[in-house]
Amino acid sequence: MTSTWTTVLQAVALTLVLVLGVATVCIRSPLRQLVAFSMFGLSLVVAFTTLMAADVAIAEAAVSAIAVPMVLLPVIYKTGGGGDRSHDRGNR
Amino acid sequence: MSRTTWRAVLLVPGLAVVLGMLVWAFAGLPGFGDRVGDYGRLINQLAQSQRHVTNFVTAVMFDYRGIDTMVEEFILFTSVTGVALLLRSTREVDENPPHDVVTSDAVRTAGGALAPVLLLFGLWTIAFGYITPGGGFQGGVLASAGALLLWLAGSYRIFQRSAPETLLDAAEGLGAAGYVAVGLLGMAAGGAFLTNTLGLGSAGTLASGGTIAALNWVAGVEVTAAFLLLYREFTQEYIETFRRAEARA
Fold first, then answer.
1. Partners of A86 in the beta sheet?
2. Which of A90, B51, B58, B165 is most buried, judged by most C-beta within 10 A?
3. Contact between A62 and B234 using a beta-carbon 8 Å cutoff
4. How close does chain A come to B192, measured CA to CA in Å?
């Protein structure tokens, strides 16, 4: 029973990795791209956890949820939405 | 034939070959989750008796492949130093302290409550890195996020005070140097660089693993300082842009 649930979770997580990975590449607005990237990271965390790679999962969570957004957010702000006019100044 | 057709003629066979090779390669892969490499099997058998630790990932990181981790740490050290050098050299020196960004009560309460929790969680992740999943790298990033929340919740000045530049610079350098120093300890004892020479203790307790524990902590310090330094430089840029925009308005 437990292994069935693990398999289901793995399948869901890996599908999300695929979908969100493609979405991260396709989205043009940097701010939305960053959100999609963080969700991509979260799906990877679930995938790693269900594959019993807890150490990698923690590292991925730390990097995708904290380190990368924290570095990219100021950059997006400083460049005025990274060239995307629809997110200009309004969204801090 | 037009240019586009020529491109397609050149591209399609190439893509077909790549696709064919991918399919061929995937067909030859072992079943999902079936294979544990020989190296992994060896580590699983030997790590606990050889190194007295219960998290074998950390044993690989800070002992069996300690030199790889050292190089990795220096990659982080070099890139953060580069960022600091670049951003500091272009920054205008300004006498007036920057404005605090006023945040809402909700953000302030949640951030203030979470900051110490996250800091403690980070320290725990570092401290128990060789017993349960975790380690210096992961714990370091988490601990640095604690200080970052303090900035989000409180003010820029609190963040500045809680993470002074001199202290961060020193901690980052000491973290990197400490790793090498522990490595030299092995050489001083007559072994090779990074030989585990300290007492191994008993597995499952904080006093175990010998140099694994020491390397884990220096890596934790290095990563925490490096990420705080990174956030600090980037937020400083952010704040200054914000101020200049405000001044123009």
1. none
2. B58
3. no
4. 28
Q: What CA–CA distance (Å, rounded) separates A33 from A26?
A: 8
State residue B208 phi and psi, 5-degree precision.
-150, 165
B-interface mutation test, from A58, A64, A88, A92, most B Cβ less than 10 A away: A58
In the beta sheet, which residues pair with residue B208? B201
Query: What's the pTM value of the predicted model, to 2 decimals?
Result: 0.81
Regions of chain B short of the pLDDT cut 70: 1, 92-103, 155-159, 162, 241-243, 249
Tokens of A35: 């959100």
Sequence-distant (6+) residues with CB within 8 A of A28 are A84
ipTM for this prediction: 0.75
CA distance A46 to A44: 5
Q: How far apart are CA A48 and CA B135, in angstroms?
A: 16
Opening angle at CA B44, ends B43 and B50, nearest 5: 60
Contact list in B for residue A66 (CB cut-off 8 A) is 141-142, 144-145, 148
Count Cβ neighbours within 10 Å for each residue of B170-209 and write b for 16 or more, e otherwise: ebbeebbebbeebbebbeeeeeeebbbbbebeebeeeebb
Contact at CB, A66 and B138, closer than 8 angstroms:
no
Helix (H, G, I), strand (E, B) or coil at B73: helix
Tell me the C-alpha to C-alpha distance, in Å, between residue A5 and each of A9, A39, A43, A60, A62: 6, 22, 16, 23, 26
pLDDT tens digits, one per residue of A63-85: 898 888 888 887 787 776 655 54
From chain B, which residues contact A within 8 Å (Cβ)? Answer: 33, 55, 57-58, 125, 133-135, 137-138, 141-142, 144-145, 148, 227, 230-231, 234-235, 237-238, 241-242, 245
Burial class (CB in 10 A: 0-12, 13-18, 19+), A87: middle
B contacts of A67 (beta carbons < 8 Å): 141, 227, 230
